[in-house]
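Problem 12. The chain below contains 440 residues. Write out its predicted structure in token notation.
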Amino acid sequence: MFRNCAGSTRRDFLQLGLGSLGGLGVAGLGLAPLLQAQAASGKPKRNCILIWLDGGPSHYETFDPKPDAPKEVRGKWGDIKTSVPGLHFCEKVPELAKVADRFTVLRSVIHKSNNHGSGNHHLMTGAPTPVPVNCGAHVSFHPSFGSVVAKERAGQASEFPPYMTLGRQSRSGGPNFLGAEHAPFLIANDPNKSTFKVRDVVLPKGISESRGEQRRLLRRDLDLMQRFADRAAADPAVDFDRFVQQGVDLVTSKEAQAAFDIHKEDGKLRTRYGRSPLGQRMLLARRLVEVGVSFVTVYYGGWDHHRTIFDGLTKHLPPLDQGLATLVLDLEERGLLDNTLVLCLGEFGRTPKINDRGGRDHWSNAMSILAAGGGVPGGQVVGATDRKGYYAASNVYSPEDFACSIYQKMGVDYRQTLRTPAGRPVALVNGGSPIPELGT
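Solution.
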């Protein structure tokens, strides 16, 4: 389990499970709210896969190396050429260097949220925190990108939740005031294991399909009895039952079972992604957008390298390099890249100088974000940092600008005002405008 600099483990603060099929606790109670509006189809829309590098990846050791800077700044690794003339990456991402002509690197998104809690929130929601928060906090003051997209896609015809998270939920990846029905459906299990199954779309051990159906029918019969004397008013329990039924439908859906069955993928393709938890989660993410899941977050923690950064990155970079390069190519080969926005980022970059523990600390004045697909031009670098990588020096953008770009590409009006349950107006994005270099 990865830990951040505050020593706190990254816990999933909201897990939606289907629970047991016993008694009145019929499967679907946890998942059912996510399926509230999956009834109407529409024209094809873009989906999104967000690779979240929790902890804050170093821009120096990924997409913005500084080979001419002093050693205490540039670090111990060199740079390599990419498929784009004149563009160099760190030597430790050779596979991504080969496909650099398929994506854009943003080098000039900056903010002032220089701790994990605030930085995570700003880059996951497009909104800064209204009060300071500590590094280890789970922070939710505003709905996440995935939850907003889920709300906007309510009503689409699909058996799948519109927003899913693989690995664990980021601390600011929830719905906040939008409600639990727009929270992500979490798949925590490791798809790299031969025993991998999605817990919430299989019947609990010891419950046969026929027995589960009998219990569902029993619950239905009990629910035929009048719950309340006054039936004139809307009965929320009746509405909820409809969503419980949709949860049960997911459990018994052969289509859902097939989409989650990563073992059906060709072994050679699985090896291309890398036989690692991250590589296989990226492959599963591709399978999910392929069947119409709107927003998939792939969580990959452990990037908070305050000490021995080169040892840490020797472990963390290879799975990312292999898996992400393969994801971009795989989507392209399947004709899915144009309609799938792929993003890879963390909450900030790392300090220019290597500290006395051999690591780099938090640095929100510079970071690198990878964006591919969904109409994003390939082979492009947006913005630049200064010669030593201290600060963004040109085409400087904010997380709000980044949020506007995501929403624009996902067909969401970023200028809209949301309403809390109490009726308070909240701007979806408070200021900002789409980053023009990312396309529409």
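Discussion. The two ends are 38 Å apart (CA to CA). Students who got a different answer should revisit the alignment rule from Section 12.3.
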